[in-house]
Amino acid sequence: MTEKVAINDVLSSINSLIKLCGYAIEQANNKNFRDEIVTTRNKLEDLQWKIYLISKSKGYYVPAAPAGEADIEQVKNAISK
Q1: What total number of domains does the chain contain?
Q2: How many whole angstroms separate alpha carbon 28 and alpha carbon 37?
Q3: What 3-state class would DSSP assign to 62?
Q4: Between 16 and 61, whose confidence is greater?
């Protein structure tokens, strides 16, 4: 397994865990439990960001180009209808 594959696997796993935390938060019936899951999700999101930055710095991930003003206006118009 290459480093690139390992990093992508970790990011994928973290993304799945974040989604599961979101579901658990929605369904939580106990305030203390819910708060703990929110804290865990926040920590996972911080970890996700750090790993993303590593991946990007090594050239394993190339983000999409920023949207142009015309694209932004088109989306704004589409969702405001």
Answers
A1: 1
A2: 9
A3: coil
A4: 16
Residue 80 falls inside a structural domain: no
Q: Is the pLDDT of residue 80 over 90?
A: no
Tokens at residue 1, please? Answer: 């397994």
DSSP 5-59: HHHHHHHHHHHHHHHHHHHHHHH---HHHHHHHHHHHHHHHHHHHHHHHHHHHTT
Residues 18 and 44 sit within 8 Å (Cβ to Cβ): yes
User: What residues make up the domain containing 36?
Assistant: 3-63
Give domain status of residue 50, yes or no. Answer: yes
Tell me the pLDDT tens digit for each residue of 29-49. 999 999 999 999 999 999 999
